[in-house]
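Recap for those who missed Tuesday's class. We walked through two folding examples back to back. For each one, the amino acid string is listed first and its predicted structure tokens come directly after. Nothing is annotated here on purpose, so try labeling regions yourself before you check the end of the notes.
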Amino acid sequence: MAMFCMYCGGGLAQAREPSRLRLVTVVFCDISGSTQLAERFDPQVWHGILEAYFAEVGGALTAAGGRLEKFIGDAVVGVFGADLAGEDDAVRAAEGAFAALERMAGRNADLAGRHGVRLSVRFGIASGRAVTTDRESSFAVGSVMNRAARLQGAAPADGVVVDVRTWLLVRDRVRCEAVPPVAAKGFDRPLRAWVTTRRSAADGAQGVFVNQTALMTRLRSDVLAAGTAEGVTVLALLGEMGSGKSRVLDRLADELARRPGGRTVRVTCRPDDRDHEPARLEQLRRELAGPGAARRGGAVPSVRELVWQVGRSLAAVSAGEGPVVVLVDDFQHASPAFRELLRPVPGGGPRVFVLAGRDAGDGGGAGDASGWGADRTYRVPPLTDADAQTLLEVIGGDIALHSATGAAPLVRRGGGNPLFLEQLAALAGDGITDEIAPSAEAVLGARIEPLSASARHVLACLGAGGQGVAPGDLDAVCDLREAELHAALEELDSAGLLGNRIAAEVAYAQMVLGDRAKVHVALAEGLLRAVQDDPTVLDLAVLHAVRGLGFWREFDPGSAGTRAAGELTARSLVAAARQAIARSEVARAVELCGRALALAGGDAALTLEIAALDTYALVATGRPDEALARIAEASAGGPAGVSANVSATFHLLVTEAVLRDRESPRLRALAASVDDPTALARLETWDGLRAARAGDYRRAEELLESAHGRMRRFGMGLGTAEVYGNLSLFLVYGDTPVAVALERCLALRDEVADAPLLHAVVSCSAAMLVQLSGDAEGARAMAAEAYGVFDGMGHEAGRAGALEFRGHVAELAGDLPGAAGHARAAARAYEALGADRTAAHCAMRAYVLDGGEPPRRRPDGRDSWETRVLQEQVAALHAHAAGEAETAGACLDRAFEEIGRIRGDGVRLLPLLGCLRVAGRIGDEVRYRRMRRAVDEAWRRRDAGSGGSFPGGLWGTRGA
């Protein structure tokens, strides 16, 4: 915005900020063959020639709005947007180069006459972000300066070459022709380039038309209908910048040109129309007069007279030729005088104005279309992802798309905006990964520029936080006083930028590294504080912490700020690893622990905490040897290491005990001093599992209930999955009555409803209790649903377990073939995972169920009652097949005695049913009746003494 002294009328330069990161366009001009020319002339003569050259080129660039950055030898460097960004900086840079060529053509006539020389100059133009300073020269710093210089070297004599960003910004205003990529020193890949010249009226519109069929149908129909009505009809077409409004007008103009009669006129308003009101009126007057009309001479009419003349012309043409349709692009820039044309004028035929402009807050104040006097308003819809993919395929022939990550990130960043998508794709073709389309940065950057430093900073903070920053957190994130923050927010609201996502992203893109580092760290700290109330924000906290650390390392490596950001990032990664374990995402937990360890430095407490999480996750991913090695490494610190983090050391000892199946002597002693309820819950879980292995499921259920209570009171931690999974299982196998156990198990299931894998684990146990309650259909559905979760998520261990539980449900329902089929499928799945003992159990169970394929291996049963029972049942069947009835009976007796030593009414039911079926298969009537009484007793006790018998239809086929 120009500023003038109210006393003398002289211009006032706005105070320059010490440094700003902004989008600029750089023009680099050099003389071709200057070395030979300098040798040819006396230095004083050559100096005079250069002065003339500097005056012409520098004057042209300055007149176009550029600022001369420096003179280097015979090179002139101008920067557009260095002091005050404008949305047409790149266009003005190109126009400045064209003007310089024209001025040099005139100057060359003089130079040829006086010195017999003609200077041939070349221009390279590049756009990009640069830091601008308050120095008078060499005030711009950034790779864009080098890019412009390299392109200049590839330009033709008296020609202009532009880079990809500049091409995207000017291609609708100048003629562009692609040239071979420029191999540029200092750049990783050749730079794509275009030779540009002034555009003629014959040049057609550019661009691709995608996904606006419905809009075009409605708009065309309404325009044609308005063409039969008297007077003026105003139709408003609104959309965000780049949404495709211009292309809709192009298509509409093409279709209207084919209709008989009438006239279609197309004009585009410019950002400076309000300062130059006659420009667009004069253009419209000439369009209506036609190409054969004589030019007017003499007096120049006033703006008011022009409005009257154009209004009369519109009425006359519409009365004489038919409906006049005026297509106005970028109407948000229209001058007040141009807007007066929308008011009805007596007489004439139908006049239809189709006004295309930007949405409110998107730059230029399109705002409420009712302010335009519109009779109807249309909105350009965003592209769907499918249409965005189609657009990328269509433009692929013109824009080399080499994005290493494919089209999906481009579709996401494009946000349904065809122009942004096309521009981001073009940048990707040049190896540039950017979140902001150049057009968005140019237009919105011009609106952001006049804001106060505080308002720009707040807008950039909103861009950094995206959806993750709440208004109440802005004071901490922006590091502003309350009054300053409120003033900034009011300023943004008045400018129509508050809530504008793209504007916030542009402001963030122009934020300096140091501010980015501080803002991302502040965002991470705030999100970490919010995790307890909303665990879903943890991943976002990690993202901001990692970004903040990256910016600190780039901005000020080795500083206290960098070290603090590293510690924050490590803590956030540890929290994320803990959460991943709670979600059963153990592979991700291992990866997060590795990243955290690299940042832990010499922090012994943090290193131990990472080790505790890492070893737990390694075990869960089937890497026990790595876990033991990691435990040994973490425990090397001795007593001093233990004192650094007692809780983490305790977790390491529990993990080691589980792996080695024996306790460290320090474990119980440390339990008395550890102040971590979740660590004690893990110890109770370990004790419960050992009790279950020994056959005491009553005690196991009690211990897991206690562990669950600790976790519910003090928060989830390591072992959460084990607590829920084993407690739900022990509710099936313990003494709790079926109805009570089912209610409890369903409550556990609800507690983990937001964690699909853990929910599926608990559902497997719940399905057995549903079956025991008599709902066979509900049990089958619940077990199948759990299997579907594991199978759909590719969780092979969960899939194997779900197959095993589906077999249990089928067995309790009396479906022995189905039970045997599930058991064999589970055996194959466990075997593929290397879980040989469990695979053998499933194979033996299937053999007991149907007498089909004998198990290939029998594990050692010294430490497991379940193994011993299954071995005796299988041995009984083998002895019967060999004709050894007495041996078969003895095997069955030993299995029955083993079951009798188990404490837990629920757990005895399935092995007793196995013995019952073996007795029936071998034809031992005495033992069959004995087993049946035992099953009835177990059921009676399980069902809290209801006196009922196990449902007779569920025995299975006797003698099968």
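Example two. Treat it independently of the first, because the proteins are unrelated.
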Amino acid sequence: MKTFSKRALLRASVAPAILGASLIATAAIAQDAPQAAEAEAGDTIIVTGSLIKNPNLARSTPVTATTADQIELKQNNTAEEILREIPGIVPSIGSAVNNGNGGASFVNLRGLGSNRNIVLIDGNRLVPAELNGRFDLNNIPLALIDRVDVLTGGASTTYGADAISGVVNFVTKSDFAGLEANIANQLTEEADGHYVRADVTLGANFDDGRGNVVFSVGYQQSDPVYQGDRPFSAFSIDSFTGANGGSGTSTPSRFTNVNTTGADSITTGCGLDGQPACNAVQGNRQVTAAGGAFRGTSAFDAYNFNPFNIFQTPFERFNMYGAGRYEVSDAVEVYSRGIFSKNTVSTIIAPSGAFGISVVVPLSNPYLTAAQRNAFCAFDTTPGVGYTARFSPAECAAAATATSPTDPNYRTVTTTLSRRATELGPRISDFTTTFFDYRIGARGGITDSIDWDLSGSYGESENVQTQQGYWLNSRVRQALLATNTATCLTDTNGCVPLNVFGPDGSITAAQNAYLTANSQVTTKTSLAQVKGTVSGDFGVASPFGTDSLAFALGGEYRKYGASQESDLLSQSGDLGGAGGAAPNIDGGYDVYEAYGEIILPLVQDKPFFQDLTLEAGIRYSDYSVDGGSGYNTTTWKVAGNWTPVDGIKFRGNYSRAVRAPNIAELFAPVNTTLTNLDSDPCAGVAPTQNANLAAVCIAQGATAAQLGSIINDPAGQVNSTGGGNLALGPEKSNSWGLGVSLQPAALPGFSLTVDYYNIKITGAITNPTPDDVISACFDNITAASASDAACTGIRRDPSTGALFGEAAVVGGLPQTLSNLGKLATDGIDVQLNYQKDVGFAKWALSANGNWTNSSTFQATPTSVNRECVGLYSVNCASIQPKLSWSVRNTLSFESVDLSLLWRYIDGVKYEDGDAFVGTLNGKEVDFNRIPAEHYFDLTSRFHVSDEVTLTMTVQNLLDNQPKVVGNTIGSTSYNSGNVYPSTYDALGRRYTVAAKLRF
């Protein structure tokens, strides 16, 4: 960052000492920007993508900028909303993500992953929010943002590891003086989703312009938008049948090991010529709606969880930002910046319960009816070879009155229970994040053309997740071990016997009070940095050029620390429906770096060579990992641009970048959580007709008796086991780009840039997709498959044979991390701007477009090299369209601006092509395709006076509704409410009114 003062450029009186210190110290600081080269003297000018401070030198790497004016017209409430709608950026975790949102918002450049880019403020890193090293966009102070720069491609040479796909740089307003107050109020057409934002910024210059201070405070608050309040999402829809879907953890309860007929259960070796008829009379059965008995078949009423889920997460934030600078002498300027934010994000999902947990039930349980008891007793223990009841009628009758475990007639049954706690209410996770990041530094001049900059910073982020409304699995088990309605057999913790055998509503408030407890998980991160640069020019130019060779040299030190501290409930995975345990994690690493960069104007002001400039940069990094081995990396770049004549410029770049593994990838212990899968090959009747397939299913933990009755999870979720790996090394990336920029003199006010990018990552830190794991085992089933590690690594629930169930019992799909992955993407970005006075108004046109040719992902050499552009599925999580653009037309009158924004998203289709096609609610639907979408936003801005501006915006002007594709076709984080709410507007038309006061 360079300050061009109204006074003389900072001189060199302390140059020798500072030069030595800065070379020993460190810095990867984004410098002064060409976009702002015409700023008034005194402004601090930021360049994205270079360490060199000269704002007049042309750069070869394209940058997409979103200005404060565009943000004001759009009335975005968060930084994530701004980025989500930029063509070429793939939606990541944000306000539209409910189940899967950890209380933070991230950005995903080029679809290469939200962990492969860096978010900066004024060219500086800030402390990440979580163990994956990602910065939380909720901490960006929007009131002070002057513009947002997005740089594509490997930027590791300039900014260090993580910048494989690029950087997002939020540039703040420099030398702000005066008072500015903003307030905005937003509401949807359905009168929900209320959003309010207010900011006050104060700034002043002092001591004849030698110093400036600025301070800003802000507040934001948003209300939830429930999926039950939109007709397209009120009921969960199965993506493959078109029927109402939902969760198998339903109400009334479902139990395994039930036989309602007392007949032989025949599910294998049956149904074909010469075989006996199949007779699936036992297995998983739901309690009847009235209670008291079991249904006669495996059919059940899936639980509709949609109404509880939300399209807009409730959010509240307080933030403060302060910055100051002061020229202590003509040679030295000191500066400082501090950011503080406290925000709470609440995620709300359907009620907790017993999600397929194994329980033991005494046959003398007081809530067990005679019909239910008899169905448990009648379970066939020798299916297919004659009928043998678990307990005889006499044993069953005697056990009904045996209330003590010491009674010789006392009997229990082991069963898997699935019961939704509808009487309790929703699960709520409040994520409260407290964030601060402080920076202090000094800068000055060594000579009139060489500057130094030395700074240090420290930041911490603490995220406390408080989980409410969860049953505890251990207490469910304890409460079912009861033989009277007043006390449990183990009568600790104030145990209250539990009635899960009755209809919906059978669970009392006292029972729920015993079953529930709040739990906390605290995630802490820290980042300490010291950096220093020396940059400028030597006063020496090429024989054919006029501008001098420019350079930057520097060093940097960063130390990362992160931990996850869970209470015993979260560590044990005891919370019903929490998606697995939250183990304790603690780790860190540090890195020393040295780097350099040059820009050499070779030829200037010559025929066909108005400018020919070369750039080069290199960075060496030395990593030390706590408890692991270190490693060294070298990144570099070369680039150039050629302006043959005024108005046209060609540019190109090539870079070698790296990404070091983050703390989660290194230190997370092996753990079982949830992933998504639409079809289990062992589900249904297929294993009963194929001996090799049956052998595989049994080798994975199913029993022969379960074959034919294994089901797919109605919610499309299965268990997944994976963890970190200290042996992981850095990823490597090669990226290159070619572009052209046009600014013809014959068309004043017009500019057009077209840039091709190509990014390839090898040694990528990845885990296989769910379909990769399934394909590795099931694509070519043979007699040997039952002993193949690709098959035996998949683990099933021993009580149901399914891939879902209690995390402590069911490993599900192995999805381990390795450096065996490959990612690649390429495409074209287009930016067009045109301004013209049309007489009655001034017309401004700005357009950004992206065409993505390809985006492929291969987790291991034996995995599918999967293309995800234009596709959606459980493997291609967040939608990346082939073509997208954003076009804004603005007419500016004397005191009024009218602006129309048109956003286009190309059509996409389902990866496998076998989703539901048919009639739904009287309409023909095809869940295999989402057609192209056009969104329009209309803004009117009134300049009431020099001090007052009123802005009114209608977003989603035509009230477009998202295309319904069902709830089980993609990743839970992005496929929610039967739609893809991070890509397509699920809120509907909404209105924003904002006021700005300036003094």
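Answers for example two:
Residues 1-45 have pLDDT under 50 and may be disordered.
The first helix runs from residue 15 to 24.
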